[in-house]
Design goal:
The chain is of the alpha/beta class and 295 residues long. The protein has eight helices and 15 strands. The protein is 25% helix and 23% strand. The strands form three sheets. Strands 1-2-3-4-5-6-7 form a seven-stranded mixed β-sheet, covered by helices on one side. The chain has a six-stranded mixed β-sheet with strand order 8-9-10-11-14-15. It has a two-stranded antiparallel ribbon with strand order 12-13.
Length: 295
């Protein structure tokens, strides 16, 4: 949109955007669903043609910070994250999804990156990781997952481990509760945390299968994530409402589940009555051989 109205003066630009948005009418249900897949976070009432056509959220590297991309897979509403050192081009990818492997590898190639590690925040139940195929297509790539996940990988992570890429690194914090093998990954300056399914935006991962335990999850989030700085950006593994990022301070104040007492939280989690993920019977066996499975 910026390119369309780049010549309009600031005040005129605001008026132009306002008038265009007022003139947009709600499309068919099919178009709305398609819009949510192509443009997470864009309202269903906005014509997708007028939305910025991209499938990731970028953050420019400032003052030597890492390159960052947030990518989305619409079937399982999964976020994949790519971080890279802008000087060495060494990179890490978090929670890659099988269905979007070509997109992800194309972006990595276009940016000239050297992908070193593909890490999963836990053994996923709703999608198959693409780390196995990535390892076959990128020489030297290693897979990583928690040692408590029960999954095979080149690197088994534990509390305090560091995943390095160039001069940058992610620190591992164990956050069991959704599964035994959940981890959060924190940038070296604590400006970003990748929370997997342990902490979602205004929510959290379910605790009714795969070693789930509501008490463990509550304690994990409060001890390992809510102790980070208020301004630390929260990037979850999933979002089902088009939200892309939160902060530790926001979630500590507004998360409708984790602001409750431990007893109230356990009661909430024990009464969600959610259907099981429809891909769980194929996803979990595949992800248990994380990074080496045959597809």
């Amino acid at each position: 949109m910026c390119s369309v109205i780049s010549r309009v003066k600031p005040l005129q630009r605001v008026l132009a955007v306002t008038l265009r948005l007022r003139g947009i009418t709600e499309g068919s249900s099919y178009a709305a669903a398609e819009s949510r897949c192509l443009f997470p976070g864009v309202s269903a009432g906005i014509d997708p043609i007028r939305a910025t056509r991209r499938s990731y959220c970028s953050r420019m590297a400032l003052a030597g910070g890492p390159l960052f991309r947030q990518l989305f897979e619409c079937e399982s509403s999964t976020y994949t994250y790519l971080l890279a050192d802008t000087e060495t081009k060494e990179a890490v990818i978090i929670d890659p999804v099988l269905e979007t492997i070509d997109r992800d590898l194309k972006l990595i190639e276009e940016l000239g990156l050297d992908l070193k590690v593909a890490v999963n925040t836990h053994c996923h139940a709703d999608h198959i990781t693409s780390t196995g195929l990535m390892k076959k297509r990128l020489a030297g790539l290693k897979s990583a997952i928690s040692k408590f996940s029960g999954a095979a990988a080149d690197i088994h992570l534990k509390e305090g481990d560091k995943i390095t890429y160039g001069k940058h690194y992610l620190t591992v914090r164990e956050t069991p509760g959704h599964t035994d093998g959940c981890v959060a990954l924190i940038t070296e300056d604590q400006s970003m945390v990748f929370t997997g399914d342990a902490l979602l935006i205004r929510g959290c991962g379910r605790t009714d299968f795969q070693q789930g335990c509501a008490k463990k999850l509550y304690k994990s989030v409060h001890a390992k994530i809510f102790t980070l700085p208020d301004q630390c950006l929260v990037y979850p593994a999933h979002d089902y409402k088009g939200q892309m990022v939160s902060t530790v301070g926001e979630e500590r104040r507004f998360n409708p589940r984790l602001t409750k007492s431990l007893e109230e939280f356990v009661n909430i989690m024990n009464n969600l009555n959610l259907p099981k993920p429809h891909k769980i019977d194929i996803s979990v066996p595949a992800n248990l051989v994380c990074g080496v499975h045959e597809v």
